[in-house]
Design brief:
1078 residues; Methylamine Dehydrogenase, Chain H; Cathepsin B, Chain A; 20 helices; poly(A)-specific ribonuclease activity; nuclease; metal ion binding; WD repeat; USP
């Protein structure tokens, strides 16, 4: 680095061409000037064709190149916004990326004619010399702000922001003071031409040529002047002549001098004998520049080669080292097959367009030009196709595809049968759309090939207000809650709703909630919470995120391909198979979960007795004459047709086949297959499977072939809502006949509870699922059929339920239950018996207790046990796992496709009843999150990165199951929840709290469409400022509790309405923010 003497150790570190290679010698550009960038590690070079290039770093790698002027570039000056350049008739500022900031020429600004030199005299002020005046140019305003008359022609200019040295074409140098805008000093340098000029602090150095006998020769000295005394100092001797001179920016007494032959001299003015020299491998130099740090030298020779020298490359800086902006590295798109129906087109960026895209054209339009893809063939056609001599033909389904060669009448939007999407924000203004309410519940087709609205796939639309603005009540007028479809594994909604209305199944699931089960993998507990929330929702929609989260993390569910993530527009190529596999998995998992819960207790396993189908499996090996008998318990019966089961004996004499024959043949099944034996031998194994005991609840998966589906649609009596099972030896005989009195001991009667149907879409892989369920009506004592299509719920006539003649309707899973003399009621509160609530009075952390743990809460005691009406204050914080997904149309309008996905991060619950522990938290749990977190929302949640990671967190983390158990207990013990903006908190926590148990301060102080923030309410009501730093859930819950107490006080005094008006009046003046906030 620099020392007090001359600078030793300069060495060349890079050498590159300063201009682009030319196609021929006559068109080769010549470098004309150069400059160091003071902000970034860049070197700028201008050429004779008006181009400017930049080179990055010590390696001088190419960064940018752009056309700046029509004439050769004369001067370059570094600016914090980019590079300022001139060619004598124009002035231009260009960003480092090559984008024009401004470009002004003499045609629009005549005062800029004949620019001879430029220099920066301020941060944004440029001193421009012309043949008639000096111009002060404002870079920000891009205009001349002052013109100072100056009749001398300026050849070179240098400045130190206070003074500017103006070298005339003769042997004069004027010192111009920027502040006073006058020439304050004049020096006669006795040079015929000045070639080098520099000014640092109070020192001016000048070099040039002198005419000797008509020949210009470079002088062997450099003139030095002191601006303070306005007198010359001892000149610097340069034996080889001086063409360029630069003063060191940090050591003004040190000068670097370049000779015409390329020899560079480094000299200290006060110690001339310490001069050092180093050569440049060039015949002559075109430019000579020193970086603003004094650590780098750049020179351009007459061959347009750029040389870069440095004192110490490892410990030197070229500039302030502001980060250089580089182009984004575009990752190559993965290969996607054109046949991949799972890949969405909106994942590929599109250029701006105005015409209708080909993908937006109606699907029924076909193009017959060569090279276009034909429409995919419906797989159901191929299943029924006949191959005759290589020609494949299939019958045309008029019911599914409609009449051929038929012109469809035009239907206007106002007369369209499509139901209008409802948003709460425009519900009052959308009067016409309100007339379409009944259209969404249409369950009869207007034409044979049209699917009724009630059976179509339900999609959630999002307005600018998000999910809260969607009117779910528009699709459900009943007291039974539907399930949202924009969740992972939404196909399971149909099966969950089916079992929800089987009273024996529902009671079993709910009763297990009495047991404390904090296992993160327990679907039994999660399903219990889900059913309890559906019962408490009373017709309001519910989002089963907790259940689906647990299901998605199950390794066996993933192994059997049961996970279907929410991709906005899911298309399942084998939806029927996935649902039936999930039915088997769910029932087996519930049985396993019950076993784990009962380990170490005296409780007996109930689930196998409820849904377990006892079978006897006899295996016989023909050649080895071996026999094996095994008794197994299965939970679903795979039902196939009698022909598929090779059981034609069960068919009736009149040839009519019903579901009873399907079930009968599937209960006694025989199969034969080859079996590999030890030693490399093979045998034939006959397997006979017989159902020896039927459970109270019978779950059946229908495995139907295409021929079976055709038979079912042509047989209106195929579906039977009840049957009788007679015990016959080791098996059963099923019949519709009513049993006699002597057969009652051997007969069990079953009736259907409901079933899941697959509804076909316009395309073969665009189907979805609906559920038909028979629900007891407690008021009339009868049973009514209901249709569940995700969040659409409606009653439906029984004849329509059993109508299987539609091409788009296929049954998949059916549940029958045993008829008893007294109907089994739904026991919604059976969990109250032997309820385990110990988790409220102890800690249960997800990992070992850390020595540095710091608890900010005080556990409840049994003396403080919650009871109906207990007041508790709650606040929850969340983190974002996935951001929102938007779609931007060609008009620029942005629409929300999928809302953000959040996870519970922290929950704080405070005591709200008066007493010595009033306001003291008894729950303050940080929840472990194992998924990748996109945004911690630290300024809103107070959660820092790493707080929720069990391996790195300093917090005492709990599982989601633990904190949910606590909140569920508080809810069912009758506690009243106080908080601010609890609607979204409850939604993300996935808990339904009845209105009578909610005290939301955001609702109490609501007026019009504005919802007041907790921070503003605390300031305006309590005169305190909260949330000054990151949010703290304990502080927020306590503040909401104080605001609620204030609300009760205002209500008692009759001043609430007056106070509410004052709040909104003052809020408008304060923009509904506490003073001092932006």
């Amino acid at each position: 680095m620099a020392s007090s003497g001359s600078l030793n150790g300069w060495r060349e570190i890079s050498r590159v061409p300063a201009t682009s290679p030319a196609r021929d010698k006559t068109s080769k550009a010549k470098a004309t000037c150069s400059a160091f960038d003071e902000q970034c590690d860049l070197v700028w070079v201008g050429d004779s064709f008006g181009y400017i290039r930049s080179f990055e770093g010590p390696q001088l790698s190419n960064y940018t190149k752009f056309k700046a002027h029509l004439s050769p570039v004369k001067h370059l000056i570094s600016h914090h916004k980019g590079i300022i350049s001139t060619d004598g008739i124009s002035l231009r500022l260009t960003s480092r990326r090559g984008l024009v900031v401004f470009d002004i020429d003499s045609s629009t600004n005549p005062e800029l004619t004949s620019i001879s030199s430029i220099s920066l005299v301020g941060t944004n002020e440029l001193l421009v010399s012309t043949d008639r005046a000096l111009l002060r140019f404002d870079v920000v305003k891009t205009q001349v702000i002052k013109t100072i008359p100056y009749n001398k022609e300026v050849s070179l200019m240098a400045s130190n922001k206070r003074y500017a040295a103006l070298a005339s074409s003769n042997d004069n140098v004027d010192i111009y003071e920027v502040k006073s805008e006058t020439v304050v000093a004049h020096f006669q340098v006795n040079f015929s031409k000045i070639t080098g000029l520099d000014l640092k602090e109070q020192t001016l150095v000048v070099c040039g040529t002198t005419d000797r006998h008509g020949v210009a020769r470079f002088n062997t000295w450099v003139s030095v002047y002191d601006l303070r005394t306005q007198a010359p100092l001892n000149p610097i001797t340069s034996p080889d002549g001086a063409e360029f001179v630069r003063l060191h920016p940090r050591l003004p007494s040190v000068a670097l001098i370049a000779s015409p032959q390329g020899l560079v001299q480094s000299v200290n003015m006060f110690d001339p004998d310490s001069s050092t020299y180093f050569p440049v491998q060039a015949d002559s130099l075109k430019s000579f520049e020193l970086s603003s740090t004094g650590d780098f030298l750049c020179m351009v020779d007459n061959a347009s080669i750029l040389h870069l020298f440095c004192l110490d490359p490892d410990h030197s800086a070229m500039s302030k080292r502001v980060a250089i902006e580089h182009p984004d590295v575009v990752k190559p798109h993965p290969f996607v097959s054109v046949n991949d129906s799972e890949f969405s087109l909106n994942q590929i960026g599109m250029p701006y367009y105005r015409e209708t895209l080909l993908s937006a054209w109606p699907s029924h339009i076909s193009f017959r030009s060569p090279g276009t893809f034909s429409r995919p063939i419906d797989m159901s056609l191929l299943r029924n196709a006949i191959n005759e001599n290589g020609l494949i033909s299939a019958p045309y389904s008029k019911e599914k595809y409609g009449s051929r060669n038929e012109m469809k009448p035009y239907v206007s939007m106002s007369q369209s049968n499509e139901p209008a999407r409802k948003f709460l924000s425009n519900k009052k203004n959308n009067v016409k759309a309100s007339g379409k309410t009944s259209k969404v519940f249409q369950y009869i087709s207007s034409s044979p090939n049209t699917i009724p609205n009630a059976f179509k796939k339900m999609e959630i639309s999002y307005s600018k207000f998000g999910i809260d603005d969607f009117d779910f009540d528009f699709y459900n007028k009943t007291q039974f809650s539907g399930l949202e479809s924009h969740v992972d594994n939404s196909y399971t909604n149909s099966l969950l709703q089916l079992y929800r209305f089987v009273p024996e199944f529902f009671n079993f699931i709910i009763k297990n909630l009495a047991v404390e089960n904090l296992n993160e993998d327990s679907l039994l507990t999660e399903l219990g919470y889900l059913y309890d929330m559906l019962a408490k929702a009373h017709g309001k929609h519910y989002r089963p995120t907790n259940f689906q989260h647990t299901l998605s993390n199950n390794e066996y569910a993933r192994k059997f391909d049961l996970i279907k993530t929410d991709d906005i527009s899911p298309q399942d190529t084998d939806l029927a198979r996935r649902l039936k596999d999930f039915n088997k998995f769910l029932l087996h998992k519930l049985a396993d979960d019950e076993k784990q819960v009962n380990v170490g207790s005296a409780r007996l396993d109930v689930f196998p007795q409820l849904l377990g189908i006892r079978t006897e499996v006899i295996e016989r090996w023909i050649y080895s004459n071996n026999t094996n008998i095994d008794h197994r318990c299965i939970f679903t019966l795979d039902v196939r047709s009698p022909l598929a089961n090779n059981a034609t004996s069960v068919l009736s004499d009149n040839g009519n086949v019903s579901i009873i024959h399907y079930i009968q043949s599937s209960m006694n099944r025989v199969s034969r297959a080859a079996d590999d034996l030890p030693g490399g031998y093979q045998d034939i194994k006959d397997t006979s499977t017989t159902v020896v005991a039927l459970p109270p609840v019978l779950s059946c998966n229908l495995d139907l072939l295409e021929v079976d589906k055709v038979q079912i649609r042509n047989n209106k009596d195929w579906f039977k809502d009840r049957f009788n099972a007679f015990k016959n030896g080791s098996g059963y005989v099923l019949t519709e006949q009513q049993p006699g009195s002597e057969d009652l001991d051997f007969c069990k009667q079953y009736e259907v509870v409901g079933f899941v149907c697959e509804i076909a879409g316009e395309r073969d892989n665009d189907s979805h699922l609906v559920t038909f369920v028979k629900i007891p009506n407690e008021e009339t004592g009868t049973t009514d059929w209901h249709l569940f299509n995700d969040f659409l719920v409606m009653p439906i006539p029984e004849e329509e339920v059993f109508n299987m003649s539609y091409w788009w309707k296929t049954p998949l899973t059916i549940v029958y239950k045993r008829v008893t003399s007294v109907a089994v009621p739904f026991q919604y509160d059976c969990w109250k018996n032997d309820l385990n609530d110990q988790i409220l009075y102890r800690d249960h952390f997800a990992s070992a207790i850390r020595e540095s743990r710091r608890l900010e809460y005080k556990l409840l005691t049994r003396e403080e046990a919650p009871h109906p009406g207990s007041l508790i204050a709650i606040d929850a914080e969340f983190v974002i796992l996935e951001n929102e997904q938007y779609e931007i149309g060609n008009s620029g309008i942005r629409s929300l496709l999928k809302p953000k996905k959040s996870a519970l991060a922290r929950v704080s619950v405070l005591r709200g009843d008066d007493g010595e522990n009033y306001g003291v938290p008894f729950i303050d749990d940080y929840v472990a999150v194992n998924e990748p977190i996109t945004d911690y929302l630290t300024s809103f949640s107070g959660i820092e990165p790493g707080d929720l990671d069990p391996s790195t967190s300093t917090r005492m983390l709990v599982t989601r199951q633990t904190v949910y158990r606590k909140l569920w207990l508080l809810l069912n013990l009758g506690c009243v929840f106080v908080g601010h903006g609890l609607i979204m908190d409850f939604r993300t926590i996935n808990i339904c709290v009845p209105k009578e148990q909610v005290r939301d301060t955001a609702v109490f102080f609501h007026k019009g469409q504005r919802i007041l923030s907790l921070r503003f309410l605390a300031y305006i009501l309590l005169n305190v400022k909260v949330q000054l730093g990151n949010h703290d859930s304990i502080e927020d819950a306590y503040t909401a509790l104080l605001i609620y107490k204030k609300y009760l006080e205002l209500q008692r005094s009759g001043q609430f309405e007056e106070t509410l008006d004052r709040i909104f009046h003052e809020g408008q003046a304060l923009k509904f923010k506490p003073p001092g906030e932006d």
